[in-house]
Amino acid sequence: MLFNQFHDILAGTSLESAYEDARYLFGEAMAIADRALNDAVQSISWRVGIRQDEGMKPIVVFNPHAWASKVNVELEVGGIGPKTVLTDENDAPVPFQTVQSQATSGGRYRLSFLAELPPLGYRTYKLVAVSESLKAVGAPIAANDLVLENGRFRLEFDRDTGAIKSLRDKQAEHDVFAGPAARAVVIDDKSDTWSHDVLHFNRVAGEFKAVKVSRIEHGPVKSVIRVVSRYGDSKLVQDFAMYPDRELIDVSVTVDWREKFKMLKLVFPINVIFSKHTYETPYGTIQREHNGEEEPGQSWVDYTGLTRLTNKIYGVSLLNDAKYSYSISGKELALTVLRSPIYAHHDPLVPEPDGEYSFIDQGIQRFNYSLLPHEGGWEQAGTAHRAAELNCRPTAVIETYHEGDLPLADSYVASFADNVVVSAVKAAEDGSGDLIVRVYETEGRATQAEIALPRFARTIRAAFGPSEIKTFRVPRDAARPVAETDLLERGV
């Protein structure tokens, strides 16, 4: 993987053949990682004691984060009938629904439910046959082809454009957007692959227009409105999901791009004044001006200001799992989805008007983003946690009944400071059997933190400066103290 961190590969400016090589090498790295992950989670799930029940299908769900998470879990399963109930490890019913399978065949289902998971641990859920004492639970939100509404938000779409017509925060009595949002705007972009000397992409060529807006899922877990739109020879599908008791909106995107010398942005006009704009960086954040320039960011960007009528602090965090360029012009926050110059075209060479060239970002790609409107700042909204949950999702293992020495639910590491994130737990490189725990502060403020490792009967207590990274060695010998190390695991 590190061999493919070359700057032209990262930036999208390499030869097309270089990307074919990178794709194969990334595939090998992902296959190695997937095997390691599969071995790791099953080494635990096989040891979970699950009592024998011929009509039960157990599912062990792993939380990769050191905080309690409530996240949507989806997995392909078979054998779900009309008289099936999902329960937790205490046999309490859990709301669930079936959604469209990835296979187009009878008897195939995709299970969807909100899993409430312990910090850096696992929990066992069970699909069981319904009985008189055990019935399905949960009720859906209000939803039709154009509106999704839960206790906190009302989301409405425009049938003609496919854009968000309004997003109303009922609790704050505030309209989140100042105009049509999630607009798919196409920009003319005749620059070379590096976009030399180009700071702004603002020559609007047009916008995608809706061909269909419809509700495609409706159940006690979530309701989903799908917006299908087109521009030229390209197609865009956005699936907007709202949950009964989650205060964010998840969006799954599929774009089939066929345009040349153009860029695609998703645009959100934010309805606040006197705003500040915060971008995630590696192990920290940075604030930037809203001058319309293209700016790099990692998994989230936040736009927070004051509401016009009440002067209350309000903002929107835009989270995503695959795109790393944003722009803010006026009050419009935009996520750059793709651009399609010629592969490795470098000024001053001018392409032949009738020449045949290969263009970047052609064809189908998929990614996800989430909208997290919030009162107060992004720090209070839990933006860093929600973005991490979007980018690093739970792992679910379909198990069977067997004896075992592990409980049905457990937690291995927990951070008790919301702004202190455990980013790595690993074996020490020296083969000693000691544990290495890497931790960092996310909100730019000094903090006293406590990280518990209950399975190891250890607690790490430390002071963190703003955005500070710390690494700790937890000795296998319980008589030896926890010690801080540098990033190379040497004592400090």
TrEMBL record:
Q: Name one Pfam family in it.
A: Glyco_hydro_38C
Transmembrane parts of this sequence: none
What are the Glycosyl hydrolases family 38 C-terminal domain coordinates in residue numbering? Answer: 419-456
Q: What are this entry's molecular-function GO terms?
A: alpha-mannosidase activity; carbohydrate binding; metal ion binding
Q: Does the keyword Cell cycle apply?
A: no
- What UniProt keywords apply to this chain's record, in alphabetical order? Hydrolase, Metal-binding
Q: What is this protein called?
A: Glycosyl hydrolase-related protein
Q: What is the lineage of its organism?
A: Bacteria, Bacillati, Bacillota, Bacilli, Bacillales
